[in-house]
Amino acid sequence: MTPASCAVCGAADLRRRYDRTEDYITGDRFEIWHCPQCDAARTLPVPADLGKYYPTLYRRYRPLVQAVLAALYRRRAAHWARLFAAPGSVFEMGCGNGLMLDTLRRWGWQVLGSERTEAAAQIARDQFGLTVLAGGIEALAPDARFDLIVLNQVLEHLEDPSAIVAALAPRLKPGGRLVVNVPNFASWQARFGGPRWFHLDAPRHLHHFSLAALTALAERQGLAIDRASYVSPEHDPYGWVQSALNRLGGRPNRLTRLLMQLDGPDATNLLHLALGGLIGAVAVPLSVASWVAGQGALIEVVCVPNNPRPLGVQTEHHP
Questions:
Q1: Domain encompassing residue 172
Q2: Is residue 4 scored above 60 in pLDDT?
């Protein structure tokens, strides 16, 4: 396989990091190629059609799981609101069911979202009565500007992440912020899981980022990273659990498939559920330690338009 160039810095000397990572939905196999110049990585080959990798039940978790995730997601959105002295306008690209935007609206924000398809956009409209555009950035009005733009677990799914950030950066109002949340390819958990890391999630994740890669991406688009946080109670502990189970061998993400209702509770899946509970007792303190060390499995950066004042990256250790 001849690798494509790096999507962040354009370097052509990518090196194969993993020669096989298996999709837990289809069983298809992919490679992960790493850029030594900026520390980004990418999934190859890129599927011509990603539709089959998103089945109807994808992320349709059981009610208890959905309730826990919803509470943690609302907490994260409230944290974004506290970045500003007063409510403003926000655009979330890839807003999903609209939960985050609904939270910000409750805090007094003017909200706008987008989803790739009309069907996906309609879900958020129906569930929360939000204004959600169907399509890419071209669906925005030419003069639309925002105080806050959010790419929450979206950038890794995009075919050309640099182009998207380049198009969004000029849409920030003075004092505006761009929030990007992605899996951390340089994390302890990523190194532990290797090609079977839960958050690698190829081929849905076409690109993989570290703080160094995000910094390079931001700088190339006239942005600077003002702060970085590695705290992710909604995804980090579970990532340890599923990654550890994956390392036992066999079909990847058995527990996730059970929780997503893709599979029923057979003996092997129930064993993984029991083992997951035991591993969870270790996963929580391990996650907290990784947050403090700046090695969390998820990384969230707040980007601001570049300016000459000497701002170092602030690292947050608490949600």
A1: 57-183+222-316
A2: yes
